[in-house]
Amino acid sequence: MNLFSMMDISSSALRAERVRAEVTATNMANAETTRTAEGGPYLRKSVLFSGDPSPSGFSNSLLHARLSPMSSMGSTSMDVPGGVNIAGVVSNEDAVVRRYDPGHPDADKDGYVTYPDINPLTEMVDLMGATRAYGLNVTAVQAEKGMLTASLDILK
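RESULT FIELD:
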């Protein structure tokens, strides 16, 4: 593996963690959204990561997944051999909470409103994890740049 392929792997991880942070921020912003364009409350979303097999024999694996009933929202994979790819963004169809609020415009005939089941604490921990993983990959890219610079200095 050369230094340029290592940069490709780190950049794929940076893209994946950026998407994870964006999805987490969207979840937090919609924690109280009771009506969407699709109808019904906002559904919490999660990002699924997958790893591409590399010549050294790594197999595909899910690196980040919520193990609750979810449906796929599509894939935005940018294949990098040995890198991190986004296998999909999924919604949790069962993540809703009913609260009694008869004055709310979205209340049903019994006075209950369906809200998304989004825990701000969980979302903040997820966002902190994405931020730290992003920072670690930035550090890896900087180390790779240092190695390239040192290699060029040796060749002078």
